[in-house]
Design a protein that fits this description.
This protein is α+β, with helices and mostly antiparallel strands. 22% of the residues lie in helices and 36% in strands. It has a 4-stranded antiparallel sheet, covered by helices on one side. A hairpin with a 2-residue loop joins strand 3 and strand 4. Helix 1 packs antiparallel against helix 2.
């Protein structure tokens, strides 16, 4: 079992969700987040004053998958998320020790679905 965290541009969320659904990956948690990386923020001029905002809006997807779906999930995100510019995002992959479905008590692969 793997736990995937993907941080992407907010306007790419629907496209990424469509690609994941094409690959039978339907279960995810989505959170609006702020962050900074190599992009180092955005510089704007407002009423003649230059302002730098180094925390940019992003969307974080958290996806638990059984091992056989890992490559499909990564491929779907990599297909839909990039624009080819700094700030496209990151994908983090972790081994997941356990998963338990609260309603039924199912554990492991069965709990993920």
């Amino acid at each position: 079992m793997k736990y995937i965290i993907a941080v992407i541009r907010p306007h790419k969320l629907e496209e990424v969700k469509r690609e994941l659904e094409k690959n039978e990956i339907h279960l995810m948690t989505v959170v609006d987040v702020l962050g900074c990386g190599r992009q180092k923020g955005v510089t704007e001029v407002y009423r003649g004053v230059t302002e730098v905002d180094n925390l940019l809006r992003k969307v974080k997807l958290e996806i638990a998958v059984n091992d056989e779906y890992l490559d499909k999930a990564i491929a779907a995100i990599m297909k839909a998320a990039p624009e080819g510019d700094i700030g496209d995002g990151k994908i983090f992959i972790f081994d997941m020790a356990e998963c338990i479905r609260i309603r039924t008590g199912e554990k492991g692969n069965l709990a993920i679905g």
